[in-house]
Amino acid sequence: MTRDDVIRSTATHIRRVGELVTDCTANLNKRAVVHDASKWSEEEWPAFEKATPKLADLEYGSEEYKQSLQDIRPAIDHRQQNNTHHPEFYPNGIEGMTLLDLVEMICDWKAAGERHTTGSIVKSLEHNRDRFGISDQLYAILMNTAKELGWVSE
Tens of pLDDT along 55-84? Predict the structure, then answer.
């Protein structure tokens, strides 16, 4: 292989990686547009409209919070069954998810934490680590991602 062949091969590889990353970002952009669109459905909206103001003042993961969710369980089940970024969508939970599901999930957890006076992505990750059986390795990756995005200070 000549030097020119190596240059062409390297440039082709770099361009191809860029195309594949663009495929990923296009998928994420689509997810951003349709995220939890099922919340507007008749199966979900009446329950979420009623429960959201109550949930905002409750500590995420507290017994009161869990009870408020139980009060709207059919709406939550519908949302989880119709949105792949929820571990509950998959029979095997987190292990059934894709990297793109995980990116949308952590963004969802970050935004959800911002709706609570005491919420934070760190609390969400810690709580959901046990809830979904997140491995140490995946927990570290999710935490590293939150740090890289500037959501967590060192």
Answer: 888 888 889 988 999 999 999 999 999 999
> Where residue 154 falls among pLDDT bands split at 50, 70, 90?
low
Q: Helices in the chain by DSSP H: which ranges? A: 3-34, 45-56, 63-71, 73-81, 99-114, 121-132, 136-148
Task: Report the alpha-carbon distance of residue 94 to residue 132 in Å, rounded.
Answer: 7
| 154 located within any domain | no
Domain that holds residue 52: 3-148
What is the biggest distance separating any 2 CA atoms in the chain, rounded to whole angstroms? 69
Q: Please give the structure tokens belonging to residue 81.
A: 């069954």
* Any domain includes 87: yes
The SS3 call for residue 29 is: helix
Residue 58 forms part of a structural domain: yes
Position of tokens 């409750």? 58
Structure tokens given for 6? 């190596």
